[in-house]
TrEMBL record:
Pfam families: Glycos_transf_2 (PF00535). This is Glycosyl transferase. Coiled coil: none annotated. Keywords: Membrane, Transferase, Transmembrane, Transmembrane helix. The keyword Transferase applies.
Length: 272
């Protein structure tokens, strides 16, 4: 509800579509109450949990505006952020996509809002300690100085992103074959392949709680692995990308499994 209230405070946002993607039954009366009290809020229900990408497409099909802002339910948007993303998009090469700055609850930049291009090499560097070696780099950019204004960025986060309707239609929206994770990266790649622009807008801030789902961590990582492998499998024509994907699959699975174990151990240590 905090995310919904933040959107309602922004005078630049004229329509809010809440996609009920398999929410708990106990949460639905509150959503319906919000919709009944506010003219510009609509709830899309009855389809179950169809995944993030398909849910976003459902919401976009229902929307009537020129700009489409996709926002995670655990992201609290600052007033004016939507306008900054729209303004940056209007100055960009079409099709365009813009993404804002994600902050954690203590005000520090969160991982994922600005990233390099995803490749098999950059993925392995990022999910292991290889990025600490000289000459190698992680896909993540949150440790770099924050730019003073909008800048081109190969990849932004789906937790807070905007496109105009024409750009969304030009790339066919989100790829519904992605269920959870990597769909935002694939959308950025689709925009770049069309000759468009992906822009990171540091002034468009949102506080992102993250990891609020009750889904077990190992299931989340399984969806991430499936998304990564689909992304690499569709990286280009020819047999080479398919062979490379098959070869890297065990390495990616091992890296993600080790990461899941480490996060579990670290959570247990902090909880003591």
């Amino acid at each position: 509800m905090e995310s919904i209230r933040a959107v309602q405070r922004d005078p630049d946002i004229h329509e809010l579509i809440v996609v009920d993607n398999g929410n708990a039954q106990a949460d639905r009366p509150r959503l319906l109450e919000v919709a009944s009290r506010t003219e510009n809020v609509r709830i899309l229900q009855g389809h179950g949990n169809v995944g993030f990408a398909r849910g976003c497409n459902y919401g976009a099909a229902m929307a009537s505006g020129h700009y489409l802002l996709f926002l995670n339910p655990d992201a609290v948007l600052e007033v004016g952020a939507a306008r900054q993303m729209a303004d940056a998009g209007d100055r960009a090469q079409s099709p365009w996509i813009t993404g804002g700055l994600l902050l954690n609850s203590s005000g520090e930049e969160q991982r994922g809002a600005r990233r390099g291009a995803l490749t098999i090499g950059s993925a392995l560097n990022s999910f292991t300690a290889l990025h600490r070696l000289p000459g190698l780099q992680s896909i993540h950019r949150e440790n770099l100085p924050l730019p003073s204004g909008p800048v081109p960025m190969p990849t932004i986060s789906g937790a807070s992103l905007m496109m105009d309707r024409a750009s969304f239609d030009a790339v066919g929206g989100f790829d519904p074959a992605y269920f959870l994770h990597v769909e935002d990266i694939a959308l950025c790649r689709a925009v770049r392949r069309k000759g468009g622009s992906v822009t990171f807008v540091p002034g468009a801030r949102a506080m992102h709680y993250g990891s609020t789902s009750d889904i077990p961590r190992w299931r989340v990582e399984c969806h991430k692995l499936k998304g990564l492998l689909r992304y690499f499998w569709t990286a280009g024509p020819g047999l080479g990308v398919k062979v490379a994907t098959i070869l890297v699959a065990p390495l990616m699975a091992g890296a993600l499994f080790a990461r899941t174990l480490w996060l579990g151990v670290r959570k247990g240590i902090r909880g003591r």
